[in-house]
Amino acid sequence: MNLKINRVYFYLFIILLFNAFHIMGEIHNENLEEGISETFVILPVCFIFALIIYWSRVYLKEKLAPKIINTESKLQYLSFWTTVIILKTTILTFVLKAVFDYNDDDVNEYFFDLGFWAILLVFFVIIIFFYLVELFIESQQEKQDIKIKLAQYQNEKSVAQYLALKKQLNPHFLFNSFNSLSGLISTDAKKAEYFLQELSNIYRYNLTQSDEVVVPLKKELELINSYISLQKIRFPNNIIFKNSINESQLNLLIPPMTLELLFENAIKHNIIENSKPLKISIVSEGNNINVINNFQPKNNDYEKSLGIGQKNLINQYKMLHPKSPSFTVINGNYIASIPLIQPEI
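The chain above was modelled as a monomer; its predicted structure follows.
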């Protein structure tokens, strides 16, 4: 039931405006001194009057109305507030008439007094005005509250979508890693043991970043160095990796496991042989980084097989950045261009 400061300013403005008209009327009647002296009475009386109207309305709305009317019934709602306004107008009129025009006349004689009806009409108009203003302010506040709730809902929905997408990426990485481990177990148990140890380190990184929306590029490059080391166990001299990232970009951000996804796809879907080594490089290009590999697909369904991972990455960027990743084949090279995200200050 607190009267917010913006309402105080509004009501003071209305009262001052009313008082200004009163003084102008007294100047017109050549009664400036009387008008100024009356101002010291009118201002506090009007402000107290406004407070009474406001607080009584809030009390009736929050405490009394829910108990005696069905708020969903427009007829009951209208009847209730019409009755309240009439009663409030009548009571305030009698109080003002009694205070400023006290005499021993019978109360019934008030109804034959033109001044009484004039005051009643003025109070009725003022109270109606206050109620309409409050209804307008409340309707605007309700609209603002709805917008805030919708924004919060959209934000929560986006986070939920992002987490769901990320969960699709992580099992993809684990599944393919186990496939690689399975191939090593049958050929070199010692390397398989080392592979498993390094794999646990890499997957630990994955788990520790599971609550992060974005991570610094530097962390992703550290992961990729470990990932490439593991892959070179399988392909000792057939994977060539080159890092050409500008040092100034290392603190920029990307979604976690982005580089791992791109490297994993390159290794999984391209031919890797002594005569056809896979060359992968990361280079800076403006506000993007490009992951480039020589394009030597194992089959004609290369683009189709990459679809799920790429779509998930693009969907993540829809929530994080105005630009999306792009995937193209140019001059025999497959190029994945990933926008870098500026950290919030």
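The two ends are 39 Å apart (CA to CA).
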